[in-house]
Structure formats: C-alpha cells, structure tokens
C-alpha cells in the first residue's frame, strides 16, 4: 500500500485533556474508510486533523512521505479535502462559491463543468445566480460537496454529508462519488449516522475513549 497520508503519534489536546491521544495510521491510495464512534467521540475532530483544518498538538503528519510543512498547508488542504456537514457558503450566490474554487486553483471558471455536476446531483433547477440564502439544507450540502469535486483531491473527507438528504438523493450522491473515485483514484474517509446500505469500507476506524482502533471492513469479508 502506498501511503497518501501518514499519522505518526498524533495527539490533539485543546485543553487539559487530550481529545485524540497518540494516533498512528497510514491511509492508502484509493481506500474506502468508514469512521465510527459515539456522538462527541471525536469523528469530526479526526477528519479536521487529517485535513489540517485544526492544528495537532504533537506528532507528525506526512503526505506521500513528505512532512506537511514541506508540502505547505495550502497545497495539502487542496489534496486532502474536508467536506463539512453544514458547509458555509461564501459570497451572495451559488456562482460565487464555485468561482472562488477556480480562483484558488488559478484556473478560469468552467461553467459547463459546474452545470454538469449540478445536473448529476439533481440541482439543475437551481440557477447559478440564485442567492445562497434561498436554498435548502440538502441543496446546500450538495453545492458544498461539488466545490470539493471540481479539482479532484487525493483524499476526500466526508463528514455526514448526506444527513439532510432523502434516500433517493443519498443513493444518487454515493453513486456519483463511487464513479468519481474510480475515475480519479480518490481515497474516501466518511462519517455517517445513516445506514449507507451498499457502501462497503476496506477498513473501519473506531474512536472510543480518545483512542483509535482499526478493523477490517466488509469490503474484505
Ligand atoms: N477545537 C475544540 N476544542 C475543544 N473541544 C473541542 C474542539 N472541537 C471539538 N471539541 C469537543 O470534542 C469532542 C468531539 O467532538 P467532535 O465534533 O469531533 O465529535 P463527533 O464524534 O464528530 O460527534 P458527532 O457525532 O456528534 O458529530 C466534543 O466533546 C466536542 O465538544
Ligand atoms: Mg461530527
């Protein structure tokens, strides 16, 4: 297994107590990993640490064998992309959100590509110039997700991204994600409280009492 991301003895201790203590693992290219643990156990914290949205207290994070400092935090976060449950949309319109992503990648805005994703995700009824304040929670989740798919990352960290969706749309999102994964060889780590019927992980990361245990997933049974 070629490791994309490596955690060496990473601890996150925001106050008196460690939230995650001395965690080590390697994440391989093209892997599917489900994160499990009770509410408040630190699943979101783990994903945010992996994407380096919050700073570790100690330990090392490597990307393809280089330290995160060598890679640079901005480039690292583009490659290891965290998709939040309740994404914060920017600016005034849906278009603003996509334009910002292209600008961050110093690339011209590709409206056709954006509209293609909007179509696939069942959002063709939404004009790009619609106000971000006038879309539903489930629509917002999908716009938030598309932002992370426009430039394929190496690792996608999905934090309960289908929580506001009905079954049909949930299935549709996973169908697109699995096809996308096949095409771009993306590693996926995901947290979900809802049964993802047909989504089988290679490994399961279980968080309990500040520690992480790793189990083989259903994909290998
Ligand atoms: N930056 C932080 N500083 C201090 N405490 C934090 C920080 N972030 C999260 N916490 C606390 O850490 C614990 C884990 O939070 P986290 O959001 O990671 O849990 P979770 O497993 O994702 O829960 P849920 O299933 O409810 O989303 C919680 O008790 C939370 O209040
Ligand atoms: Mg969470």
Automatic annotation (TrEMBL):
Span of domain ABC transporter: 5-219
- TM annotation in the entry: none
Looking up SUPFAM superfamilies in the UniProt record yields: P-loop containing nucleoside triphosphate hydrolases
Q: Known SMART domains for this protein? A: AAA
List UniProt keywords, sorted A-Z. ATP-binding, Cell inner membrane, Cell membrane, Membrane, Nucleotide-binding, Phosphate transport, Translocase, Transport
UniProt GO molecular function:
ATP binding; ATP hydrolysis activity
Q: Does the keyword Transport apply?
A: yes
| Pfam families in the record | ABC_tran (PF00005)
Name one process (GO BP) from the record: phosphate ion transport
Q: Does the keyword field hold Chloroplast?
A: no
Q: Which InterPro entries match?
A: AAA+_ATPase, ABC_transporter-like_ATP-bd, P-loop_NTPase
Q: What is this protein called?
A: ATP-binding cassette domain-containing protein
């Amino acid at each position: 297994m070629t490791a994309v991301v490596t955690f060496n003895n990473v601890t996150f201790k925001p106050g008196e107590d460690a939230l995650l203590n001395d965690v080590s693992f390697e994440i391989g290219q093209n892997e599917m990993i489900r994160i499990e643990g009770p509410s408040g156990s630190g699943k979101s914290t783990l994903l945010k640490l992996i994407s380096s949205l919050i700073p570790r207290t100690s330990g090392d994070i490597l990307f393809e064998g280089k330290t995160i400092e060598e890679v640079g935090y901005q480039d690292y976060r583009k490659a290891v992309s965290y998709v939040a449950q309740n994404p914060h949309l920017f600016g005034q319109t849906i278009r603003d959100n996509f334009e910002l992503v292209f600008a961050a990648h110093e690339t011209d805005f590709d409206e056709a590509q954006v509209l293609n994703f909007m179509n696939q995700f069942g959002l063709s009824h939404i004009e790009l110039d619609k106000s971000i304040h006038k879309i539903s929670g489930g629509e917002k989740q999908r716009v938030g997700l598309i932002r992370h798919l426009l430039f394929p990352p190496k690792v996608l960290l999905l934090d309960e991204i289908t929580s506001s969706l009905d079954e049909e749309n949930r299935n549709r999102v996973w169908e697109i994600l699995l096809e996308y994964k096949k095409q771009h060889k993306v590693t996926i780590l995901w947290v979900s409280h809802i049964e993802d019927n047909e989504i089988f992980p290679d490994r399961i990361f279980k968080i309990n009492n500040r520690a992480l245990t790793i189990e083989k997933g259903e994909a290998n049974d």
